[in-house]
Amino acid sequence: MNLADEIEELGRRSRAAARQLAIAPRAAKDAALEAVAAAIEANAERVLAANAADVEAAAHRGVAEAMLDRLRLDATRLAKIARQVRDVVQLPDPVGEVLRAWSPPSGIRIEKRRVPIGTIGIIFESRPNVTIDAAALCLKTGNATILRGGSEALHSNLALAECLRTGLGAAGLPADGVQLIGRTEREAVKLLAQLDRWLDVIIPRGGEALIRTVVEHARMPVIKHYTGLCILYVDAAADLPMAARLAVDAKVRRPGVCNAIETLLVHRAVAPDWLPVLGAEMRAHGVELRADPAAQALLGAECRLAEEADWDTEFLDLRLAVKVVDSLDEALEHIQRHGSHHSDAIVTRDPATAERFLNEVDSATVYWNASTRFTDGGEFGFGAEIGISTDKLHARGPMGLEELTTYKYLIRGTGEVRG
Amino acid sequence: MNLADEIEELGRRSRAAARQLAIAPRAAKDAALEAVAAAIEANAERVLAANAADVEAAAHRGVAEAMLDRLRLDATRLAKIARQVRDVVQLPDPVGEVLRAWSPPSGIRIEKRRVPIGTIGIIFESRPNVTIDAAALCLKTGNATILRGGSEALHSNLALAECLRTGLGAAGLPADGVQLIGRTEREAVKLLAQLDRWLDVIIPRGGEALIRTVVEHARMPVIKHYTGLCILYVDAAADLPMAARLAVDAKVRRPGVCNAIETLLVHRAVAPDWLPVLGAEMRAHGVELRADPAAQALLGAECRLAEEADWDTEFLDLRLAVKVVDSLDEALEHIQRHGSHHSDAIVTRDPATAERFLNEVDSATVYWNASTRFTDGGEFGFGAEIGISTDKLHARGPMGLEELTTYKYLIRGTGEVRG
Q1: Which of A178, A394, A396, B283 has its CA 20 to 30 A from that of A266?
Q2: ipTM confidence score
Q3: Residues linked to residue B205 through DSSP beta bridges, in sequence order
């Protein structure tokens, strides 16, 4: 079968499975997840052998060690993956919730009920654990998935997908509730993005280039964030020791994640006292600073001058752009122009300034006196996270189970006509 | 300026205006809407002259009378448009509503607040009243709009857009909160659909060809319905006089609207008694029936046999496809395969059958013993409607003011770090 026909067939099967999953009771979905965890444990040897083959092939092709580490599974990591599936079992099922019920003057009774989205395409890169994570959250919410992982993890993903399908079957649910694309052609991404006849939404999890390709071709909604260019603004009225704590937390703890900060804006009134202190602390943590001229004058000549591109770069590394601003308005302008509308923070003691910042910064998550690192489904108490969105329709910010649902209107009447 | 640069500039201005509209208080937005209504009344002569020029040019090009009627404004229609703007003033403003507020174990306080979507592109066809309707709902919800109307209504739309911009200015809000594309090249639709740098969402209001073009090129979410292929299923346990009332209401009253039915499915058990009666009634209303062989045998030889394409056609006319089915399952299967997931209904006295239908039909609005014609923002009590969506993210079914909003998370802390 050619690739296009094969993907069309996956879509058709996914829609059929989604119809069954949509009406599956919570008990069946939870039983399936339990069976998935058990299948991962029972097939650990086979999964690890498949993964070892992937890692060996990648090493043979000269893939860097950091990348190999993302690809690699071992008994501990696999046990953790199974445990996380069991954690999802414990979470409440949002499907079926009545969001609103009312009766307009015509007499019909309207119920707005939470239902699964339907069919979800998920495109991801090298980490094989995403196969299980993403499919488990979609299964819990009654959605069918078509997964497309990185080609370097193909054998691992095939083995893990088999565990997912086994689990579904064990609970009497359709195995096609989870399907993995077993072909490695890049063309598959484009074909999946054009499968709007069968797919309701597509979620790319990966680098900006992958996301741009998906958006370019997609004929259905894409849930994504391109980058996490998060910005911390230290106001004239900031508690400066707090500002240093938040800056270090948000830059240093995990520089490679999307809710780490990339740019620090400092009000001119506090820059002379605070920036030299902050600079020393950042350097002690190995952070390279790139500053505008005003900040450089305070940070010392060893601090590199920022280039224009630095304000638009998600470094994902121990690197921080620093700029002195004259006002809250200048900070808001900079965030609007250069930020990625993901997570931005202000440090200030002045509530009026803080509320202006919270109101006017158009980002999924805006912070007053707290670290941007809290943008996370776990930290929000969602119990699980399929990703973080900078889109606005409809999932914004950390996405848990509720964000994998939509709603429908059920109307019960007694023969009403509109006339 | 070339077209691409011009549209890019509209986008840039729209985003700047959206930032101001997002924080405008309800009083300012309502004052702007009042001023828009007043401007329409004060400039009635100019608007009607512009419209007369459009109608004359269209008539000169041989445009059909039905189309001219959609294009034509007169004093009565214009007064109604102004009145509808004042109706929007009376509606509550959903922006600012706190959807949820909680504090997770880290101690940060999270507020999930309803905010405007931001910038909305609206592409529509000949009716000039859409210019005002759509912009008024977006203005009320703090969204900036870029409008692109049909070229045959260009002068009417320019005159109406001037009233909108005058109203915004009179209330101290940015006139660029509403911008109309004054160029008639078809290329403008494609350029607007690719303006994801500036536009958050695009809403095409028009025929299927227009919508397909937008979806093909769009790099942002598109809110739409392609067609309204609504289906009525008359069950074995139906109240047959009720079924006839609902079928006539949903087919005959306004055959050209999206919530009218196009297909009637009838259970085999009631078809022999009921179909001849219904057929006579439909014919009395001038409805042409197209039937499958089983239905044709009951409806008589003058009833035309349905072709395969008839099950997938939104007739938008006094025409109805009729099919006899053996079971609820066959009806569900037909609806899944041929329906457009807009509005579908069952007539039955059996609650268990009804609940299966309501649960299993994956449409924005599903009905038990009521006419599909109720799918409408006004009938739902939303007070206004920007359209009806068969999309699932996030606006589904009739879309009022709430559906023109999204949310953001505002987080207030006392120096919390994640560590």
Answers
A1: A396
A2: 0.87
A3: B124
- A62 close contact with B: CB closer than 8 A: no
User: Per 3-state DSSP, what percentage of chain B is helix, strand, and coil (rounded to 5)?
Assistant: 45, 20, 35
User: Domain boundaries in chain A?
Assistant: 3-224+407-411, 230-374
* Cβ atoms of residues A416 and B371 within 8 Å: yes
Give the CATH number of domain A3-224+407-411: 3.40.605.10
Mean local confidence (pLDDT), A340-348: 95
**CA A344 – CA A262 distance, rounded (Å):** 10
Contact between chains at A370 and B108 (C-beta distance less than 8 A):
yes
Residues in chain A with CB shorter than 8 Å from the CB of B23 are: 359-360
Put simply, the answer to whether A370 touches B407 (Cβ < 8 Å) is no
Residues in A touching B223 (Cβ below 8 Å):
393
Tell me, which fold does domain B3-224+401-411 have in CATH? Aldehyde Dehydrogenase; Chain A, domain 1 (3.40.605)
List, run by run, the mean pLDDT of 10-residue segments along chain B (419 residues): 93 96 96 98 97 96 88 95 94 91 89 91 88 93 95 95 97 97 91 93 88 90 86 97 96 91 98 96 96 96 92 94 98 95 95 94 92 90 83 79 80 83
Residue A396 φ/ψ, nearest 5 degrees:
-125, 135
Closest chain B residue to the Cα of A358, Cα to Cα: B410
B62–chain A Cβ distance below 8 A for any pair: no
Distances (CA, A) of B14 to A279, B117, B143, B176, B193: 39, 12, 9, 6, 15
Domains B3-224+401-411 and B230-374 share a fold: no
Q: For the structural domain made of A230-374, what CATH number should be given?
A: 3.40.309.10
Q: Give the pLDDT confidence score for residue A226 in this predicted structure.
A: 79
With CB atoms and an 8 Å threshold, state whether A393 touches B253: no
Measured between beta carbons, the chain B residues lying within 8 angstroms of A374 are: 106, 108, 411, 416, 418
Query: Between residues A402 and B33, which one has the greater pLDDT?
Result: B33
The tens digit of pLDDT for each residue in A237-289 reads: 999 999 999 999 999 999 888 999 999 999 999 999 999 999 999 999 999 99
Residue B215 contacts A where some CB pair is shorter than 8 Å: yes
A346: which strand partners?
Answer: A233, A368
Span A362-401, pLDDT tens digits: 999 999 999 999 998 888 888 778 888 888 777 778 878 8
B291 burial level (CB within 10 Å; 0-12, 13-18, 19+): buried
A107-158 pLDDT, tens per residue? 899 899 999 999 999 999 878 888 998 999 999 999 999 999 999 999 999 9
- CB–CB of A415 and B215 under 8 A? no
Q: Listing from the earlier edge strand, what are the strands of the sheet with B178-180? A: B178-180, B144-148, B119-124, B201-205
pLDDT for position A384: 77
Beta carbons of B345 and B233 less than 8 angstroms apart = yes
Residue B359 touches partner A, C-beta closer than 8 Å:
yes
Rounded to whole angstroms, the Cα distance separating A121 from A214 reads 11
